[in-house]
Structure formats: C-alpha cells, structure tokens
Design a protein that fits this description.
This protein is an alpha/beta fold. The protein is built from four helices and six strands, in the order βαβααβββαβ. A hairpin with a 2-residue loop joins β4 (89-92) and β5 (95-98).
C-alpha cells in the first residue's frame, strides 16, 4: 500500500484539505493525523492526554513519541493506503522542531509528498 504525506505550516488549512481529499478518494484511503497519533501514544504511555501539553515535552520525549507514531503509520500502511497529515514544524517551549524527523520519515517511507500552501 502507499503513504501520501500531506504537509504545510500551521493555519494553512491542512486538515480541511486532507479531509476533502480523503472523501474524494473513497474508502480505499485512511486519513491519519500525525499529531493525533502522537497524543494517543502519549496517553498510552501515561505522559499526557492534553494536546497542548505535547508542546511542553522534552525533545527526547517528543522524538520518542514521533518515532512511535511513525511506526504506527508504517504498520497501517501495510494494509491500507494512508494519507498522512502533519505540519512541517511544530512549536514547543524550546523552539520549533521538525514535524517528521529524518528517522521517522524513513520509517514512514512516503510514496508522495504534497505541500499545502
């Protein structure tokens, strides 16, 4: 199956675009929001259940959550086509971090990249 990575900066309408594309493509595609998966992983690990708290985590915790979320997406892509929505950069207390670090990008291994401006 395939992964189409759709990304942009905050406020560009990324979620709306992804939802419209997913509806147009039909049931053969699953829309996954990377931040939602990170939050689910954080909740499972007992770190937080609040999305706003993700920006307060240490860089190590953030990378760990990104890595686990990437593994989840890669597993999903084994059985279905995935549209993966994520921001290029995410604001934290210590500054901006990559939405998908290189090692996570390699795990996800997207077939296509769409930039929403």
């Amino acid at each position: 199956m395939s992964v189409t990575l759709v990304s942009g900066v905050n406020g560009v309408g990324l979620s709306s675009v992804c939802q419209a594309v997913r509806r147009g493509l039909g049931d053969g595609y699953k829309l996954i929001n990377f931040g939602d998966v990170m939050l689910e992983q954080a909740a499972t690990m007992g770190i937080t259940t609040e999305r706003a708290q993700l920006g307060t985590l240490s860089q190590t915790e953030t990378r760990r959550l990104q890595r686990r979320a990437g593994e989840f997406v890669a597993e999903e892509a084994e059985t279905t086509n995935v549209i993966l929505s994520t921001h290029l950069a995410v604001e934290t207390q210590t500054g901006y971090v990559q939405g998908l670090p290189v090692e996570v990008l390699q795990d996800v291994s997207p077939d296509a990249f769409v930039l929403v401006e």
